[in-house]
Specification:
It catalyses: N(6)-[(R)-lipoyl]-L-lysyl-[glycine-cleavage complex H protein] + glycine + H(+) = N(6)-[(R)-S(8)-aminomethyldihydrolipoyl]-L-lysyl-[glycine-cleavage complex H protein] + CO2. This is Probable glycine dehydrogenase (decarboxylating) subunit 2. The chain is α/β, with parallel strands linked by helices. Helix content is 35%, strand content 11%. Helix 4 packs parallel to helix 11 and helix 5 crosses helix 6. It is built from 15 helices and twelve strands. The strands form three sheets. A seven-stranded mixed beta sheet has the order 1-7-6-5-4-2-3, with helices on both faces. Strand 4, helix 8 and strand 5 form a beta-alpha-beta unit.
Length: 493
C-alpha cells in the first residue's frame, strides 16, 4: 500500500502579513482603554483569508473518523448514529434560545419536557425518581456516591467508608469514589467474567458504603448472579450503585431498579443517541429508588394541578437533597435530543434497539471466533464483545498493531486495552451498536479477518500501520512522558 506522505500546512504556515478574512464593522459603542494587565505586546495570530480558513478546517474535518462517515465500534462508548430529527427538535427556537434563568412561569414548555423525560427515564430503568442535573456520566457517578454517603450519614452510620468496585467496572468508578472520600476495594472477576462471589463476601462488613457495578460489565457480559450480588450487599447494610453506561443492552428488557440497584446514572449521550466525543457534550441524569429519592440533587421538576384538567410545572428541591451539582439544570440541548429519541421509538422501539444491539455484537463475535480469542469461553455477549488481539502464528503482533492497521481499511479502531490487561490481555472491546447493517458488520469482520492473515504472513505491515493516514504511527510513550500542551512561538519568528 502506498504511504501518504503529504501533510497539509498548519494555519500559522498559511499566514501572510496584511491578509484578512473578515472586516469588522465600525464600533457603535464608546471605546475604552483595556486594562494593561490583560494586554500583550505581541500576539502572533495568523493573518489568513476567508478561503484559507474554510479550506483548512474543511480538510481537518475530512481527516476525522466520525459516526456520520464510518462504523465507530468503540467499546463501552455506544457510538450510535444520531438521528437528525433530534437535531431539528433541539434547534427549535423555544428550546435553543431559552435563557437558563427564565422564570418557571415563562418556561412551562421546557419544564414539561424535563418532567416527562424524568418520568420516562424512571420507568425505563425501574426507579422512583430522576434528577436531570449531572452534566456527564462521571458527574452522575459522583452524584450517586454523594447520595449514598448522605443516606448513611442521615441514619447516623458514619463508619461506612468502604466502596467495593469490581475489576470489570468503568475506570471512572474508583476515581469518583475516591473524590467522595471513600476507600476503594477492588473485587476480582471469576473465570466466567462475573463478580467473584467469594471475594465479595469476604469484604462485606459494617464499614461497606456500597458496591459500584456495571451491568452488563465491560467484558460485554451480563452478570449471571446480579440478584444475589445485590442481596449480599443489602444484607450487609450497603447500597448498590449501577453504572448505566451500558444501558443500551437492557432497554425494554430488564430494569436495574427491579433487579436490586438503589441508584444509577444514565448516559443520555450514549443510550439515547445524542452526539458526543472529544469530551462532550454529555448528560448523566441520576435515578434513585425509594431509599434515596429524597437525596437527589435539585432542583428537579414536579407537576402540580392547575385547574380541573391542567398541570403546571415548577422547580422542587427534594427534602434531603445533596444540593446542586452544577449551575442551571443540566445540558438542556441533550435533554431535548434524548426526549425526542424516546418519543420517536416508543416502548416497542426502545426494546428493539437493545435487541438489535445485542444481535449485532453477537454476530461480530461469531464471525471472529476461532481467529481471535474470546476470553470467557462460549458465552453469548450483550451489546459489546471483548476479543483479544492475539493471533496464532503471529506472536509479535499486539492489539495496537491490529487497531492501527484497521484504520487503513477505513474503520475507527475498537477500544484498546480495556478492560484492563490483568483481566483481558490485549483487549479489543468492540461495540457495533444497533444502527449498523449486516453489510457494514460484514465489511468490518472481513477487514479483521484479513488483518489476521496479514499478521501471519507479513507482521511488519501491521507494525508500520497506519499507512494511509496523514501521519504515521506516533510514539505514544514519548507523547505521554513529554507533554506539549500549547504552541510555543519563538520571539524571533
Amino acid at each position: 500500500m502506498e504511504v501518504n506522505t503529504f501533510v497539509e500546512p498548519l494555519i500559522f504556515e498559511l499566514s501572510s502579513p496584511g491578509r484578512q478574512g473578515v472586516r469588522l464593522p465600525e464600533s457603535d459603542v464608546p471605546c475604552y482603554e483595556l486594562p494593561s494587565d490583560l494586554l500583550r505586546e505581541r500576539l502572533p495570530l495568523p493573518e489568513v483569508s476567508q478561503v484559507d480558513v474554510t479550506r483548512h478546517f474543511t480538510r481537518l474535518s475530512q481527516l476525522n473518523f466520525a459516526i456520520d462517515t464510518t462504523l465507530y465500534p468503540l467499546g463501552s462508548c455506544t457510538m450510535k448514529y444520531n438521528p437528525r430529527v433530534n437535531e431539528d427538535a433541539a434547534r427549535l427556537p423555544g428550546f435553543a434560545l431559552l435563557h437558563p434563568l427564565t422564570d418557571a412561569d415563562a418556561a412551562q414548555g421546557a419544564l414539561c419536557l424535563m418532567y416527562e423525560l424524568q418520568t420516562y427515564l424512571a420507568e425505563i430503568a425501574g426507579f422512583k425518581g430522576v434528577s436531570l442535573q449531572p452534566a456527564a456520566g462521571a458527574q452522575g457517578e459522583f452524584t450517586g456516591i454523594l447520595m449514598m454517603r448522605a443516606y448513611h450519614a442521615d441514619r447516623g452510620d458514619h463508619k461506612r467508608t468502604k466502596m467495593l468496585i469490581p475489576d470489570s467496572a468503568h475506570g471512572t468508578n474508583p476515581a469518583s469514589s475516591a473524590m467522595a472520600g471513600l476507600h476503594v476495594v477492588e473485587i476480582p472477576s471469576d473465570a466466567r467474567g462475573n463478580v467473584d462471589l467469594a471475594a465479595l463476601r469476604a469484604q462485606l462488613d459494617d464499614t461497606v458504603c456500597g458496591l459500584m457495578i456495571t451491568n452488563p460489565n465491560t467484558l460485554g457480559m451480563f452478570e449471571e448472579h446480579i440478584e444475589e450480588v445485590c442481596a449480599l450487599v443489602h444484607a450487609a447494610g450497603g447500597l448498590v450503585y449501577g453504572d448505566g453506561a451500558n444501558m443500551n443492552a437492557l432497554l425494554g428488557i430488564a430494569k436495574p431498579g427491579e433487579i436490586g440497584f438503589d441508584v444509577m446514572h444514565y448516559n443520555l449521550h450514549k443510550t439515547f443517541s445524542t452526539p458526543h466525543g472529544g469530551g462532550g457534550p454529555g448528560s448523566g441524569p441520576v435515578a434513585a429508588n425509594e431509599k434515596l429519592v429524597d437525596f437527589l440533587p435539585g432542583p428537579i421538576v414536579r407537576a402540580v394541578p392547575d385547574g380541573e384538567d391542567d398541570w403546571r410545572y415548577e422547580w422542587h428541591m427534594p427534602p434531603k437533597s445533596i444540593g446542586r451539582m452544577r449551575a442551571f439544570h443540566g445540558n438542556f440541548g441533550m435533554l431535548v435530543r434524548a426526549f425526542t429519541y424516546i418519543r420517536v421509538h416508543g416502548e416497542a422501539g426502545l426494546r428493539a434497539v437493545s435487541q438489535h444491539a445485542v444481535l449485532n455484537a453477537n454476530y461480530v463475535q461469531a464471525r471472529l471466533r476461532g481467529v481471535y480469542p474470546f476470553p470467557h469461553g462460549e458465552r453469548f455477549c450483550m451489546h459489546e464483545t471483548c476479543a483479544q488481539g492475539k493471533i496464532a502464528d503471529a506472536p509479535s503482533v499486539v492489539a495496537l498493531d491490529i487497531s492501527k492497521r484497521l484504520m487503513d481499511y477505513g474503520f475507527h479502531p475498537p477500544t484498546n486495552y480495556f478492560p484492563l490487561p490483568k483481566i483481558v490481555p490485549e483487549a479489543l472491546l468492540i461495540e457495533p451498536t444497533e444502527t449498523e447493517s449486516k453489510q457494514t458488520l460484514d465489511r468490518f469482520c472481513d477487514a479483521m479477518l484479513q488483518i489476521a492473515e496479514e499478521a501471519r504472513h507479513n507482521p511488519q505491515l501491521l507494525k508500520d500501520a497506519p499507512h494511509s493516514a496523514p501521519m504515521k504511527r506516533l510514539d505514544e510513550v514519548k507523547a505521554a512522558k513529554e507533554l506539549v500542551l500549547c504552541c510555543v512561538i519563538a520571539d524571533d519568528e
